[in-house]
Amino acid sequence: AISDVANSQHPPYRYATLPDQAEVTNGTDGIRGDFWRYQDAHTTLTYWKDQDAWNIITSGDVSDDRGHGENISLNLTLLNDDLGYYLHHPGGVNTAGLCEEVDPENMTGMTYYYSHPSMNTTGTVTIDGREIEVRGESWFDHQWGGFGRCYPAWDWFSLRLDDGRYLMLYAIKDPMNQELIDMRGLTYIDQEGNATWWTGGNAFNMTATRWWTSDLFGFSYPLDWTLSTPVGDFALEPYFDEQTMNVREGESKYWEGIMR
Q1: Are 35 and 52 in contact (CB under 8 A)?
Q2: Positions in the chain short of pLDDT 70
Q3: Cα–Cα distance for residue pair 114/64, rounded to 1 Å
Q4: Which end of the chain is more exposed for a tag (fewer CB within 10 A), N or C?
């Protein structure tokens, strides 16, 4: 999804590929060295091991969004030339949500989760034939496990502060949409790149101060927030309201967009 702040537009980009329709390879390039590559009919994703860099190239109108999308293509390179990768738990593994069982063998009820908050990014974004050169910082997330079976909703923020600090925090909800306070999580990265973690009731308190109803789905979403954390208090608001993810029928209709 791309948030066009100037025009208050949030065109989604989505498609699905079955495992047997994609190819994963490893190889060596004489210029960049060893690489890992994923490729399907629309996307080529390459990881260059020696440079610790990612490149993603997409092409074509592959949106699966019930006719609301646009033709979006990407050619982006993300380079790790500052900071590092940060676990979102001292051991790297969190228990997430209310499950009938927690089974470490198949990760049911558990999640691996780490991020890089500031990958140097350059490239182009093309929307309906208009190519735009982009550069800046990308927040890189990698999360996997069996958590998807255990909770239906969550509130999640990644915050990049002007003074070089970063916060990631999340609150998971039960099937009745009530927050599971014991499963709150907060990762804090200071200006020197040191990480500190808080969990449960000690992590933060947050209050939604404004709700908004999407014309697209008819659902109401909390958009304005106040946060009280061990490292400061914050007020958050979106650049614009309509940043819902226009996903397929039967999937969670969540809001994910840019805030300040």
Answers
A1: no
A2: 60-70, 97, 100-104, 148-149, 151-152, 246-250
A3: 28
A4: C
